[in-house]
C-alpha cells in the first residue's frame, strides 16, 4: 500500500511536488533540532555570501530534493529526461565517446542528482553503472533499485564486489557515476579540506580514474524555480589525479566545491560531511 502511494505521488506535477517538499523542509527544520543545527553549522562553515538568504532557501531545497526522488524512481525514464530543459556541456561526453574513452561521472549531493543520473543514462550508447549505499529506511531500497536499474541504468553496492563491477564497466569503455561527498569507511579515505574544514574524503574515485584513464566529468542537475524542471551542467575535471592520495583528495574536493558554488542553496548541507567514520584516524588540520 505504501509503495503504491509513493508511486502515485511520483505522478504529481513537479511544481506540486516541489511545493509540498518546500513545506516538508520547513517542518523538518522546525521539529528536528539535530538536523537544524547540522544544516546551519555546515552552511555557515562554508563561508559563502548571503548566509541568511542561503539558509532559508536551503531549508526549502532540502524538502524539494527529498520528494523529487520519488519522481526520479517512479516515473518512466523518458518522462524523467523530459524534465531537463537544458544541458550545458554535453560536448565533453561526446568527445569521450568519440575517443573511445570510458567516463567516470561525478555528482555530489547537489540539486536533482538522481534526475541528472537518469538523464545522462538515457543519452549514453552504453550502460551507466552507479555506486550506491542502501538507504537507512530499508523499505525504500526496492523502490530505489527499481527506479535506477532501468534501461541503461545499472547499480553497484559500495563494497569490494561493487568496486570490481565499476572497474569492469570502465575497462569495458562504459560509464560509471559516483557521489564523491559520501564519507568512506576507515582505510578508504584521507582527511582533506572541504570548505576549509577537514572532511574524510574517498580515495576510490581517484584510484579508478588513475587505473582506467577514464574521462572524469563533474555534473549536476540545477533545480529551476517554480517546478519548471532542471538544467544539467557538465564540466571536465580541473586539474588531474597523480596517484598521491592526499593531493588527489584535495583535487577532488576543490572540484566538488566549484560545482556547489554554482547553486549553493541546493547542496545537501544537512549531510554529516565532517563526521569521523568508525575506525578512521582523528581529523588533523589541513590546508584550506
Automatic annotation (TrEMBL):
GO terms, biological process: glycolipid biosynthetic process
Superkingdom of source: Bacteria
UniProt KW Cytoplasm keyword: no
Sections of the chain in a coiled coil: none
Keywords, alphabetical: Acyltransferase, Cell inner membrane, Cell membrane, Membrane, Transferase
Membrane-crossing residue ranges in chain numbering: none
GO CC entries: plasma membrane
Compartment list: Cell inner membrane
Record carries keyword Nucleotidyltransferase: no
Pfam families documented for this protein: Lip_A_acyltrans (PF03279)
Any one GO molecular function term: acyltransferase activity
Matches recorded under InterPro entries: LipA_acyltrans
Stated name of the protein: Lysophospholipid acyltransferase family protein
